[in-house]
Amino acid sequence: MNNILEINNISKIFAENNSLCKAIDNVSLTLTKKEIVCLMGPSGCGKSTVLRIISGLDTADSGIINGDEWISADSLHTAMVFQEHSLFPWLSVAENIGYGLRMKTRFSSEQQVNQKVSQLLALVRMEEFANALPHQLSGGMKQRVAVARALAVEPDILLMDEPFSALDPFSRRELQDEVLNIRYHLDTTFFIVTHNPEEAVYLANRVIILTKRPATVLKEVTIPFSYPRNMVDPEVLDLIQEVTEMITSGRGKAEVN
After folding, report:
1. Residue 140 contacts by C-beta under 8 Å, 6 or more apart in sequence?
2. Mean pLDDT in runs of 10 for the chain (257 residues)?
């Protein structure tokens, strides 16, 4: 299987309280086309830092990412969805989704932009709210729009930093199913930071678990279950428990590649 992203031994050091603190230490991982990978680890271990480096919003102090030829803050290879939706409150749903298309100038005409926006509205099932403003939407609907806006520039990898953590359980599961639906229809790879082992096992093909700071890769767990996943299956519940134990104690029995 061809890798679309290869990270080799990246490290990052921050200045904190007049001293230097290593956030991540020789992190290596790969992503392949059209897979979902969840990144987990103790709180504050550097998961978001890894995403920011991949997106080009931050830089590693050492290590290599795909030869570093594609990483920049204005790259179309990646797009980011944050915990907060960050929609422009004065723009409609359709205008928010189309904003990146107009800024990146990938499409040569307004007709092409509108056509792409219509496709994305249908993909995230928000057609009837195309003209609504963000304050008229629920939290889950705002995140749907944020996902559609990120997908508009057709990234190879959609980076998601705790995208559903602020939602109620019902909306959270709806958005998780939205990710699975998008993965079915598009070739996009998803790289998702989450603190929720159940969410990781529900969504991911693989789960990468980081150690506490300075973070390095502790385990890479392949999820063996097909979609849709039965979350009350004893084997699924056992794997959720094992992933939880890996994060909290660094031990676990799940098979590691």
Report:
1. 167, 168, 171, 172, 174, 175
2. 85 84 92 95 91 89 72 67 87 91 66 90 95 94 94 91 90 93 92 96 97 92 95 96 87 40
